[in-house]
Model the fold of this input.
Amino acid sequence: MFFITQSDVRPNGWVAISTSHQWEMWLHHNIPNGLNAGVRPRLKSNLKHLLVGMELKTALIEPHQNRGPGEREVLFEPYFQNFILEFCVAAFSVLEGLGSAQWLAQNGQDGGNGPAISRNQWLPALAAVYDENGEHDLLNNVGSTLSVRDKLHQDRIGIRENIDWHAFSYEAAFMPARRAIATLLLRHAEHVPANSNLR
Done:
């Protein structure tokens, strides 16, 4: 049995997750100081809640995917794919948020005037900070995450053969998104919550 809320006595199968407060120090070191006084705390608040939600989804996705032969399913299958979708969308938001913050800092802006920052701007800025030499394959993992996420768009469904709910599989969708987030967590890794399952 899995418990979403913490318990004084840890039951078998319960996965410990962080609180949003525990993510603040890591975010403090990863969001540039030069951002607008209203922008920086708002971004920190948004991202810490997304990260906690991703921990919960990981705590359910992993045991469902990696259960042994004959073990009962953890999730109803459509929930499994829904959680993967939600993980990818949250990962995209974290990547976009930190990438945009880094682009602002690299271009001498503080974000106070609400500039629109395109993917072609924030993605290279993100890679320059978190995977400068490409050793962690961040760009490809982000690209895979975005590609799979974009497949769910329902516009022009009659002529788009690549729209398929089953594209939200563990290997094709969850793992690239998880690897991308894990790459970000290498920077100031000492401030990542100790019990996080996103490493």
Notes: The two ends are 24 Å apart (CA to CA). The chain has six helices and no strands. The chain has one domain: 20-191. The chain has a mean pLDDT of 87.
